Amino acid sequence: MNGLTEIIDSLEIKFSKLSQKLDSLEKTNQELRNELLKSSTIIGKQSEEISTLKNQYETLKTANSLLGSDENKRETKLKINSLIREIDYCIAQLSD
Fold first, then answer.
1. What pLDDT score was predicted for residue 1?
2. Helix, strand or coil for residue 70?
3. Does the pLDDT of residue 3 top 70, yes or no?
4. Are the CB atoms for 81 and 89 separated by under 8 Å?
5. How far is residue 20 CA from its own chain's centroid?
6. pLDDT tens for residues 58-82?
7. Measured between alpha carbons, how far is residue 63 from residues 25, 57, 74 in Å?
8. How many percent of the chain have pLDDT more than 70?
9. CA 70 to CA 89: how far, in whole Å?
10. CB count, 10 Å around CB of 58?
11. Dihedral (C-alpha) 16, 22, 25, 27: value to the nearest 10 degrees?
């Protein structure tokens, strides 16, 4: 009977340790989930900022070319031609 009591006590101690370990792992898991959520939010904001900066860069390149810079002149002409074609298409649609 004494051996059975020792086994039960040993099992209770092991169960207690496992329970503490589980609680610790759940807490760590929740902290990691929170950190992942924060990181995802930051990545989203940075992606938006990158997109905005790329658009600003393209606008600045176009403005620079229009001001007489020889760099990106071809791209600017192509963009202007594209815009003219779009305007012509709109005018044609309105005329019909």
1. 66
2. coil
3. yes
4. no
5. 36
6. 888 877 777 766 666 777 778 788 8
7. 56, 10, 13
8. 94
9. 30
10. 13
11. -90
CB 38 within 8 A of CB 45: no
Residue 64 one-letter amino acid: N
The span from the CA of 95 to the CA of 49, in Å, is 41
| pLDDT (0 to 100) of residue 68 | 66
Instruction: Tell the burial category of 28 from Cβ atoms under 10 Å away from its Cβ (0-12, 13-18, 19+).
Output: exposed
Q: What CA–CA distances, in Å, run from 77 to 41, 72, 88?
A: 39, 9, 16
CA pair distance 85, 77, nearest whole angstrom:
12
CA–CA separation, 89 and 23 (whole Å): 66
- Are 71 and 64 in contact by the 8 Å Cβ rule? The answer is yes
Q: Which two tokens stand for residue 77?
A: 């002409």
